[in-house]
Amino acid sequence: MKNLIRSLIILLPLFGIYFFFNILTEEKFYPGADFRSFEVPNFELSALDLDVKYTSEDFDNEFLMNVWASWCITCRVEHGFLMKLNNDGYNIVGLNYKDNKSDALGWLKKYTNPYSLNIHDPKGSLALDMGVTGAPETFLVKDGVVLVHYSGEVNKVIWDNVFFPIIKENKMFQ
Amino acid sequence: MIKIFFIIALIISPYGFSSEVYKFKSVNDEDRFYALIHEIRCPKCTSGSIASSNAPVSEDLKMKIAELINQGYSDTEIKDYAKKRFGKDILYDPEINSTTFVLWFGPFIFLTLILFGFLLRRKFK
Questions:
Q1: Model confidence over A15-55: pLDDT tens digits?
Q2: For position A38, which CATH number holds?
Q3: Are residues B57 and A133 in contact, defined by beta-carbon separation less than 8 angstroms?
Q4: Domain limits at A64?
Q5: Distance of CA B67 to CAs A120, A131, A134, B80, B85, Å?
Q6: For chains A and B, what is the number of CB pairs under 8 angstroms?
Q7: Predicted model pTM
Q8: Is A6 within a domain?
Q9: Domains and CATH numbers, chain B
Q10: What is the ipTM metric for this complex?
Q11: Does the beta carbon of B88 lie under 8 angstroms from any beta carbon of chain A?
Q12: Does the beta carbon of A133 lie under 8 angstroms from any beta carbon of chain B?
């Protein structure tokens, strides 16, 4: 009994150190990435540049949805990579988040437009429904279901490690 | 004259400012709202509740919660709404289920075991 307690005095702290070392040094797989899939919520919002209304039924194909705004600095950083994706033939839908229409259009004119179409969400209602906490955020959508939700800037590393495996797995954009 | 005008402006301005942002059907609903916004974490600034946060997403979430309460949603439904979109971390109190069981009851189980051990030791002495 005494020996057991003695060994416990040594073993318990060792176990504690091992436990916390493991937890604290654990390599998290891209903390901005979220793979819980959900359906694109119902919405009805007007387009940014055209006089039409979009509803959730218009979005049942394969596309990337990028949440952006003219006030968002990281969106400017991300813009170059989105242009590259657009040139590679990926369909990117823009969700203009809490932005002024004229500011947003000016931004697109100044830096060129990587989006096939733009939804204007001045109050962030659709964004809130999709779990957006800020801009930029990017969703991968297939048949009206979100497969990947990435919070933060999408660049080559994120694309190759977070998005591309899922795209390949689901045989998208072929 | 200007002085009087200034005083009147001072007296009136708080009333102009304190217009209610959130409107509810009953006092009970309002109480539920204030309880809920203290239980839900701000998605942007994760060490504060949405009640204490002015982040745009928290403002939106508060508006949405007020809207859902007025639509007759229950507290659990509203929590589920937030959880579905922002993950289980959004709730300040972790829910009790098979994965959080240890978190909630671990200390008590540990205490009982220690107590049991002491009693056994006494008996064998």
A1: 999 999 988 887 778 888 989 899 999 999 999 988 889 98
A2: 3.40.30.10
A3: yes
A4: 31-169
A5: 21, 17, 21, 15, 17
A6: 30
A7: 0.77
A8: no
A9: 24-124 (1.10.8.640)
A10: 0.72
A11: no
A12: yes
